[in-house]
Amino acid sequence: MKLVVTHYLRSLRERDELDAILPDLLSETGFEVLTRPQRGTRQAGVDVAAVGPDTDRDGRKTLFLFTVKSGDLTRAHWDGAQQAVRPSVNEILDDYIPNRIPPQYSDLPIAICVCMGGEMREDIRAQWSGFCKTVEKPNLRLCEWNGERLADLILTGMLRAELVEGEHRGLFQKALAMLDQPDVAYRHFSRLLERLFAATGDERVRTRQLRQAYLCLWILFVWARDGDNLETAYRGAELLLLRSWPYCDSTRVENGVLKRERMSHFEQVLKLYLIVAHLLLVEKIGPFANKRFALSMGVGSRNSKDVNLALFETLGRIALYGIWLHQLSAMNEGAFDETTDREANRVLDLGIDVVNANPTLVVPVCDEFAIEIALFIYLAHLRKRLHSVRGYLSAMAEHLWFALKIRDGYPTPSTDYRAILEHPQNRSDEYFQEHTRASILYPVLLTWLTLVGDHDRRDRLISVLRERTPHTTHQVWVPDSLTDEVLWHGNRNHGLAVPGLPIEGSMDKVFEVFNEVTKQHPIAECISAVRVGLTPLMFTACRHFRMPVPIHLWHAGFEESSAADLGAGKE
User: Fold this and answer.
1) Most C-beta atoms within 10 A of its C-beta, which of 149, 150, 260, 508?
2) Residue 421: its pLDDT value, please?
3) Residue 147: C-alpha distances to residues 2, 117, 216, 481, 544 (Å)
4) Rounded Cα distance, 7 and 12, in Å
5) Residues 64 and 108: beta-carbon distance below 8 Å
6) pLDDT value for 229
7) Measured between alpha carbons, how far is 440 from 547 in angstroms, rounded to an integer?
8) Dihedral of the CA atoms 476, 481, 485, 489 (nearest 10)?
9) Helix 147-156, helix 19-28: angle, nearest 10
10) Which of 393, 384, 371, 387 lies closest to 319, judged by CA?
11) pLDDT at 516
12) For residue 167, which phi and psi values (nearest 5 degrees)?
């Protein structure tokens, strides 16, 4: 296990990685963390400041000032640039210590710690020793926290007991070993989280469990990145984000200090999810998004259903990432807001490129792809660019109209992989009726066709539905009072179905049903994440656990859409 952890630490980058886990590691081992790494502010050489026992000085209470560097500490890292260690330590001596130490800690001895994921190279050891002798005083010393020391702290602190011993350790190691088989690795990681989040009445134990899970995900991510296979890391980050929420929800945690700790943890998990999503979707998939059939060929299967399944999965992830970025840009101000806003538009462009370059996305083989379609179109709606996806909606309507007429290529409500591969097995009445018995896809598509103003294709699709599938139960889903308690754990037995939607010409009666349902079952009263402004978390849960997107979310703002949104241009 120590080899696993040291390899992980050596692979961490300085910014947003090693400095992201250090505060949690210090908190878990008895330190009071005073400051965490921040962007856009001058930190005078200190990445993390904490107060805690100095084990090298008989446990004496000490103020630790950490300057963090990634990998091994080489000659270039020591004194070769402005961000090197020696200039950072000089900045701590000249600025931080005289001017920035809080008054209540000014009498404590000070330890300036150079923290690195790897080790200090021998060719600078002499320079380091000479520098220490020059600056050290009775109440001030320099110390080295290398990967070996951090690994010991992790194994004796955050990863003690449950994860290191017995079946927990086996599940974690299996997840790492099977990264080239994402389904298997994800299954082991999911079981690991189930065991880590075992029932407990001690809130401090729960906080430790959350930190352990977060660190395990970091290790999983670094190994996946090194292996150039981010699939498990992405799915694991989504899962931990969802599993953490019930324990971090500010409406459920009453203690003020505990609430701040839990929300800080949730923010760190969300940040890691966004890092993985960016690497996978923007950096890895992005360069091939606008190349005709490139992603389709990249699936590595000759079966068109495999290609369809993989690309809708990708489209849903892109849409979800864009929705998160849009939400974050709306919640923040300043330069970060502008950068995130531009990135949200870039992600929408990425999704549009994927759709345009891969015609299979016009042909949903599964009815449950209503989830991905709702997310993608809703992202365009948020970015006021519905005109950019009108062609996609129209082409899909054309395909479905033709597929229903010839009983071939229409979506199936089945979720069984083999059944999807063989669909349609024949064109008999019995088979056709069985695989068009219910749908959540057509209400979504017809709603957005109405919104973008393509009434001709909407009416044609309604006509063939009434003619060929009068037996189909068109329905939507809404959460109930139980949803917020069980959804985040993957439970699917909750919520209410609204079946029998009156699909006909103008869709007016359907919209009347939608409005009545959303008034009678307001989602903010059912879902705490929506109530506190984290609506994308509900989208994440729906996509990850394959639950229909609640009508409140994909139908939201229907009446507010403007002509400018629809007519701003064509892409």
Assistant:
1) 150
2) 94
3) 10, 4, 16, 48, 35
4) 9
5) no
6) 92
7) 11
8) -10
9) 40
10) 371
11) 92
12) -70, -30
DSSP result, 459-524: HHHHHHHHHH-TT-EE-EEE--TTHHHHGGGT--S-SEEE------TT-HHHHHHHHHHHHHS-HH
The answer to whether residues 396 and 362 touch, using CB atoms and an 8 Å cutoff, is: yes
| Continuous H helices in 358-454 | 370-382, 390-406, 417-422, 429-434, 441-452
* CA distance from start to end of the chain: 52
Rounded Cα–Cα distance for residues 234 and 238 (Å) = 6
Give the pLDDT of residue 562.
40
Tokens of 306: 């495999």
Nearest-angstrom CA–CA distance, 63 and 274: 33
Reduced to 3 states (helix: H, G, I; strand: E, B; else coil), residue 482 is coil
For 56, the token pair is 């090298």
Q: Which of 248, 249, 220 has the alpha carbon at shortest distance from 235?
A: 220
Q: Which helix (H) or strand (E) holds 312?
A: helix 304-331
Question: Residue 54: beta bridge partners?
Answer: 60
So what's the pLDDT on residue 213?
A: 87
The two most distant CA atoms of the chain are separated, in Å, by: 89
pLDDT score for 416: 95
Q: For 550, which DSSP code?
A: P
Point out the residues of the chain with pLDDT beneath 50: 161-165, 557, 559-564, 566-571
d(CA 44, CA 97): 9
DSSP letters, 172-210, are: HHHHHHTTTSHHHHHHHHHHHHHHHT---S-HHHHHHHH
DSSP symbols for 318-374: HHHHHHHHHHHHHH--SHHHHHHHHHHHHHHHHHHHHHHH-GGGGS-SBGGGHHHHH
Q: Which residue, among 308, 406, 418, has the nearest Cα to 363 in the 3D structure?
A: 308
Contact 51, 23 (CB under 8 A): no
Cα distances from 157 to residues 198, 202, 494, in angstroms, run 18, 17, 38
Cα 364 to Cα 368: distance, rounded to the nearest angstrom: 9
Gap between the Cα atoms of 195 and 188, Å rounded: 11
Q: Residue 293: which region, alpha, beta or left (left: phi > 0; alpha: psi -120 to 50)?
A: left
**How confident is the model at residue 560, as a pLDDT?**
44
Label residue 207 left, alpha or beta by phi (over 0 means left) and psi (-120 to 50 means alpha).
alpha
CA distance 64 to 34: 10
CA-angle at 384, arms to 378 and 386, nearest 5°: 60
How many C-alpha atoms does 516 have within 13 Å on its Cβ side?
8
* Spacing of C-alpha 447 from chain mean position: 28
Contacts 24+ apart (CB under 8 A), 506-509: 507/446, 507/447, 507/450, 507/458, 507/462
pTM for the full model? 0.81
User: Running DSSP on this structure, what letter comes out for residue 31?
Assistant: -
In angstroms, rounded to a whole number, what is the distance separating the alpha carbons of residues 426 and 471? 19
**Element (DSSP H or E) covering residue 32:** strand 32-35
Q: How far apart (Å, rounded) are the C-alpha atoms in residues 222 and 7?
A: 9
Q: Enter the tokens of residue 298.
A: 């990249």
Q: What does DSSP assign to residue 505?
A: T
- Residue 469 in contact with residue 441, Cβ under 8 Å? no
